[in-house]
Amino acid sequence: MKSVEVDFEDVEANGVRLRCAVAGSPRNPDLYLLHGFPESWRCWERQLPALAREFRCIAPDLRGYAGSGKPVRGYDVRSTAADLYRLIRHFSGKKTRVRVAGHDWGGYATWGLAYLAPEVLDRITVLNSPHPWMYLQRLFTSTQLFKAWYVGFFQVPVLAEWFLTRGGGDGAEATLRAGSAHFERLQPDYLSAVRQNVLLPGAAPAMLEWYRTAFRYLFTGARFMRGTTRVPVQMIWGDQDPALSVSLTKGLIHYAPEYRVDLVQGAGHYVTHEASLRVTRLLLDWMR
């Protein structure tokens, strides 16, 4: 990747320590970048050089991941949105609204914040991360149920942890491979970091707890998102995502009246790697 200076800061937010990568001038508008499963802040490393020229980018490891704390509880959408809220208060204070981009589970937390604290948000981007309530409505009325088979597997204690960590993290890498349309575009050093992170003490069960908590509270957890949010939403979507149907980009107007959908042709779930330049341009165009 192109050179960009990255500093790290540990922040106590909502009862959990979050390791944050920070790049760009504090004089620039703040842009928060949230990764998904099974990644880390480095999910955004190909976007950071360009984004950091115009924004101060704050990219945390989410709770349960990599350099952040790995508590047993707190993986429901209200708690993870509260993590983000506290980060925003720490870095950005109360002076201005901020921009947030979230991929996968990072998008899940971003959706939550758009309902719980829209006053802190200028606009958001969600990448291959459907509206949580709309997803549940579609789950049992489309082929999406068959695409979500892995969610059931991740509920199995011990076995799911073994799968992720076997062979020195082979399972975590296999997850990236299975979700990608262009796995060859994920760099070897990045894959090595993913493998190492899943082997950290407590990491595998903590990462899986995002799925397990969402499954336990399947309908009650996201019920507060049945209505609309007035936060402007951009949805970036790799149209070859094997786990999430492209149909989940349709009907968003019922939940976010001010929205835009950008389909990324030929990309799978891991769009920040598979179509890095395209994603960077789309983010800059929206976030400016």
SSE arrangement:
Elements: E1 7-13, E2 16-23, E3 30-34, H1 48-51, E4 56-60, H2 77-92, E5 98-103, H3 105-116, E6 121-127, H4 132-139, H5 144-147, H6 149-153, H7 159-179, H8 188-198, H9 203-216, E7 233-238, E8 259-264, H10 271-274, H11 276-287
Helix pairs in contact: 2-3, 7-8
Write a short abstract of this structure:
The chain is α/β, with parallel strands linked by helices. Helix content is 39%, strand content 17%. It has a single domain, classed as Alpha/Beta hydrolase fold, catalytic domain (Rossmann fold).
Can you describe what's shown?
The chain is an alpha/beta fold. It has a single domain (7-287), classed as 3-Layer(aba) Sandwich (Rossmann fold), CATH 3.40.50. The chain has 11 helices and 8 strands. The chain has helices at 48-51, 77-92, 105-116, 132-139, 144-147, 149-153, 159-179, 188-198, 203-216, 271-274, 276-287; strands spanning 7-13, 16-23, 30-34, 56-60, 98-103, 121-127, 233-238, 259-264. The protein has an 8-stranded mixed β-sheet, with helices on both faces. Strand 1 and strand 2 (16-23) form a beta hairpin. Helix 7 runs antiparallel to helix 8 (188-198). The protein is globular and about 45 Å long. The mean pLDDT is 96.
Number of domains: 1
What coarse outline follows from CA principal-axis ratios?
Answer: globular
* CATH topology name: Rossmann fold
- Total strand segments: 8
Overall CATH class: Alpha Beta
